[in-house]
Amino acid sequence: MSVVGAEYRPPWTALHVIGIGGASGSGKTTVAQKLIKTLNVPWVVILSLDSFYKPLTKEESARAFKNEYDFDDPSALDWDLLFECLSALKQGKKVEIPQYSFALHNRLPTKTTIYACNIIILEGIFTLHDPRILSLLDMKIFVDTPSDICLARRLNRDILHRGRDLRGVLTQYNRYVKRSYDDCVRPTMKNADIVVPRSDSHVALDMITQHIRQALAERSRKHLEALRALQSSPTSSADELGGLRNIICLPQTPQLHAMQTIIRDANTSRDDFQFYLERLAVLLIERAMVELPHEQITIETPTGKSCTGMALSASEVVGVSIVRAGETLEVGLRRVIPDVSLGKILIQSESMTGEPKLHYSKIPPLSPTGHVFLLDAQIATGAAALMAIRVLLDHGVPEENVVFIAYLAAPSGLQAIARVYPKVRVVVSVIDEGLMHPTAFIVPGFGNIGDRYFGC
């Protein structure tokens, strides 16, 4: 039986990138903020082109403090770095964005991390200038505002927010900014899909918003279709899946079966449910530890005799819980590895469509040879599991270093994981019959594990 060969692409690999160009002070940031407010979708990031100014040499920095350095020329920007960052974001990767200080006229040592966005809004005077950047933009907007309004806004911004003085701002404007707009910025208007007259054009903003919503809806439709294709018509029974090398089901001993029976029973008290679920968690974690690399060592026993034994050789192990039911496994993990570092991933499904959406991720720092125990209470359709594994891979965790741990699973969810991530090992206590339609609850199942464990 072969279940390998499928591909899963999370929605952030179809990132929608909007570019907004226009004169300095034209209202590009205002347009971006109005779009965010109108769209009302999570994980929209405004990326300023200002972040990509090149680091200055000592001589250039001295000129900048005298208002004699031309920041309004395309050559002042690090286009290679911007292209690299945007390309990586379009591929769904985590990216570190530089921070630029206009007060210091240089890059800061700190960076901003961007990952798994729905929309990136790139705004700056030269956003529509470079052909490589244009090729990455899904929508190109130019904000066309009268020059007197632009100057007034620039004076207000540079004096109040960038620590500049009036004379310096006017000197730079007359020497560099106006010439740059005429020669370099205004010609990029021809590259725009939409020209917004001033930043308060409601008609233009409504048209842009409608277009973006349609694009996001189409992306969600394709994502759901891909998930259904991975989950549909499982060709593997529980016994066949249990026989796969990377799907590990605990031996169904009478003791284990008795624990599962207590956990399944709707009449089990919350205290007993917690107690036996935590016992089961320890068994699962101990079995997962077998999947980690070990090495042979020699020790001396209290009797003074040498003894050959084994020791964990993995450089480090961290746990990452899928909030919130996955957190029920943390007690068992800490009993086995008391000082383990823990991360969190929050994935919730849309109430109307059932599409899983990533809302939060915090992954502990991990060496390239480190291993991750990914914790969730159950694997039903496999949608959340696929997304969570992809988050780990995007953070540099090798696929073969991920061990997914769950109390129980349905065949369709396990098959989806095995198809897409054949090197990920999955440890469960039992593989149940399947899913109840249309709710997608596992049957016979353990019920809502999070509600039963936490009491709400």
TrEMBL record:
Tell me, which GO biological process terms does this entry list?
CTP salvage; UMP salvage
Q: InterPro entries this protein is in?
A: AAA+_ATPase, P-loop_NTPase, PRK/URK, PRTase-like, PRTase_dom, Uridine_kinase-like
Q: Which Gene3D superfamilies does the record cross-reference, listed alphabetically?
A: 3.40.50.2020, P-loop containing nucleotide triphosphate hydrolases
What EC identifiers does the entry list?
2.7.1.48
As one GO molecular function, the record gives: ATP binding
Give the reactions, separated by semicolons, that this protein catalyses: cytidine + ATP = CMP + ADP + H(+); uridine + ATP = UMP + ADP + H(+)
Q: Name one Pfam family in it.
A: UPRTase
Pathway of action: Pyrimidine metabolism; CTP biosynthesis via salvage pathway; CTP from cytidine: step 1/3; Pyrimidine metabolism; UMP biosynthesis via salvage pathway; UMP from uridine: step 1/1
Domain AAA+ ATPase, first and last residues per copy: 14-165
Name the keywords, alphabetized.
Answer: ATP-binding, Kinase, Nucleotide-binding, Transferase
Q: Which SMART domains match?
A: AAA (SM00382)
Q: Which PANTHER family match?
A: URIDINE KINASE
The text of the family note is: Belongs to the uridine kinase family.
NCBIfam families linked to this entry: PRK00129.1, PRK05480.1, udk
Which protein are we looking at? Uridine kinase
Q: Which organism is it from?
A: Saitoella complicata (strain BCRC 22490 / CBS 7301 / JCM 7358 / NBRC 10748 / NRRL Y-17804)
